[in-house]
Specification:
Length: 285
């Protein structure tokens, strides 16, 4: 998190995003001897209607308080979507926070009761994708959903988890972008610093994705996974905020092939305890 620690988060984000926009996408000629990927600084400045010198000051962190009008113009030139635009606007509003001590994330007792009654894969995760609690169906779906595991770490470093996702490339990109969105301006959070540092050292894929500065929500959607016992499963995912944690549920379309396979998994999981699994997580925030 070098850029975040240095305080030049706005400049880092602008640089990363302009490198992802081609001249053709911006309506500019793509010929000539271009030594940088994407757009040049002066091209971004021209298209945004600001001076090249002012844009250079923004990228280098010499001006950290541009107007909303300037940011809106940059968002347009960099072709940011609504989530990315909101993230950009938030970078200038952020203020450094004092370092915080680690505090365990708490799973409310009523959520344990809910997990015990749900007959679909369900688990509780923290802000850094740490699994805090899960039910037997979640473990039947994937043993990496056991409390104490981290979903992003598993996705990037565990070959079995990589094979589990039919589109691993997209899943990895989505998770990393969602982590950056979740972090926001909470860059001094010990758990985030720890996780980002660990993955930056151990995963080239993470380093590449992190450098893109993508931001994305990961609240819901549909995914296809390859289960080692029942085969391909197409499942919907929903996330529900409960206090300071997130309840995640996976479920298939009613009476679909995946629904039948999930019932088979349920029958297999009946040999295990019906109570939710929960262990303290030493790395929780």
């Amino acid at each position: 998190m070098k850029d975040e620690v240095s305080g030049n988060r706005l400049g880092s984000y602008l640089r990363a995003r302009r490198e992802l926009v081609s001249p053709a996408q911006a309506g500019l000629p793509s010929g000539g001897n271009r030594r940088v990927p994407g757009l040049r600084r002066e091209e971004v400045a021209l298209l945004a209607g600001i001076s090249p010198d002012y844009y250079l000051r923004l990228e280098r962190g010499r001006d950290t308080n541009p107007s909303q009008q300037v940011l809106e113009a940059l968002a347009r030139v960099l072709q940011l979507d609504d989530i990315e635009r909101t993230y950009l606007l938030g970078l200038t509003a952020a203020r450094p926070r004092a370092p915080r001590r680690k505090q365990p994330e708490h799973v409310p007792a009523r959520v344990h009761e809910l997990l015990a009654h749900l007959q679909i894969p369900a688990f509780v995760e923290g802000r850094a994708f740490d699994v805090l609690a899960s039910n037997p169906m979640a473990l039947a779906l994937s043993p990496r959903l056991r409390p104490g595991q981290n979903r992003l770490r598993s996705l990037l470093l565990d070959p079995e988890e990589q094979a589990f996702h039919q589109d691993w490339t997209k899943a990895a990109a989505d998770f990393v972008a969602a982590l950056r969105t979740t972090i926001g301006d909470d860059t001094g959070n010990p758990r985030f610093v720890e996780l980002v540092g660990e993955l930056a050292l151990s995963s080239q894929r993470f380093r590449t994705l992190w450098a893109r500065h993508d931001v994305r929500g990961l609240d819901g959607g549909t995914t296809t996974v390859n289960h080692p016992v029942v085969g391909e499963l197409r499942l919907h995912r929903d996330k529900l905020a409960i206090d300071d944690v997130i309840l995640v549920v996976y479920y298939p379309d009613k009476n679909s092939d995946s629904d039948e396979k999930l019932r088979l998994l349920s029958a297999l999981s009946h040999t295990e305890s019906d109570a939710p699994v929960d262990t303290p997580h030493p790395k929780a925030t």
